[in-house]
Amino acid sequence: MESYSQSWNLIHALQEALKRFEDEHKYKKIYQTYAFIEKAVNNMGLQLVSPKEHAAPIILTIALGRELSSKEIGDSLALQGFIIHYESSYLQQNNWVQIACLNHYKEREMKRMLNSLQMYVEQVHV
């Protein structure tokens, strides 16, 4: 039987990271953020890749129509200081963008990001 040792620093860092999720309030905040962004995205006429009942409320994956470009949208939002996931080849091939709900966004920041996304979508549809 072989035994393996683990770095104490690594184990301690993992324990500290897991403590962040002991508070039920953090989960509620993640769910609230997901619901807020989901509603805004649906109101824009955009589609989520997975329906809510089949998705984890951590990341929203948004499928963009052919007239939209995940790279252009991601670049545009990044220039405005908003971080979404769009750069991987997998996301670009599928023309998807992802918004993570784990970050502690202020409501005002979320609204600004979603307004910027909506303006981009409306600009293309005009």
UniProtKB/TrEMBL annotation:
InterPro entries: PyrdxlP-dep_Trfase (IPR015424), PyrdxlP-dep_Trfase_major (IPR015421), PyrdxlP-dep_Trfase_small (IPR015422). The keyword Transferase applies. The lineage of its organism: Bacteria, Bacillati, Bacillota, Bacilli, Bacillales. This is GNAT family acetyltransferase. Coiled coil: none annotated. Keywords: Transferase. GO terms for molecular function: transferase activity. The keyword Protein biosynthesis does not apply.
